[in-house]
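Researcher: Quick sanity check before group meeting.
Model: Go ahead. Protein one:
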Amino acid sequence: ASFPQLCGLSLEASLKPLVKWLSDTGLDKSQIAKAIASFPQLCSYSLEANLKPRVQWLSDTGLDTFQIAKTIASFPQLCGLSLEASLKPLVKWLSDTGLDKSQIAKAIASFPQL
């Protein structure tokens, strides 16, 4: 992954708070490293506008802390997807196909690229 803008981000204002928040969200050091290495754009996302709402959505969808950490580590691009245009319609579609909340959570946790 290439993201030269990473060099312009503030260590104190952007990167350290992101790593702390990811840790507080349940990701371990190797998961944080994997997420940032595979999708460095994650470092440029706003905690308030992008990351916290996506994690809240994952929780509301039924994922537990372990599943949320695994999902972000394996598919950090999810944090950049639109809640209204992508994520909520996906859950509605899965629900319309007959999956219940626990099945939807398992599907998202198992294959977040869905």
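Researcher: Fine. The other one?
Model: Protein two, sequence then structure:
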Amino acid sequence: VRKICCGSDHTLALCSDGAMYAWGLNNEGQCGVGTTHDVMRPTRVAALPGLGAGAPVGAFAAGGRHSLLVTAERPEFTGKEQSVRGLLYAWGCGQGGRLGNGNTTNQCSPTLIEPLVTPNRRYM
């Protein structure tokens, strides 16, 4: 395990191979494993849309009822049409618009936050 963070009732861990795992209370999808069933053992977080499993993780955080992830650059991703650096993903409780995806719907898997995606512009 390279990094770990804790929300109110769930935990996220990033392993040295780049895989992210989650466990704990998951009633609003905050673990990002594709369901709302509580997660009793470390379970791999669903793949990031458009990037797949093993996408480069730069930073991540576990909120009270949601989770966030920002991608990082990796050599094998350079030279592509759009950089993967600084893409923001969110999942879990959407109440009050906290996920930033334009609605209040809970998300059980990582969701790309589209307004922050602009070609040739980096926000992070």
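Researcher: One line on it for the slide.
Model: The chain has a mean pLDDT of 84.
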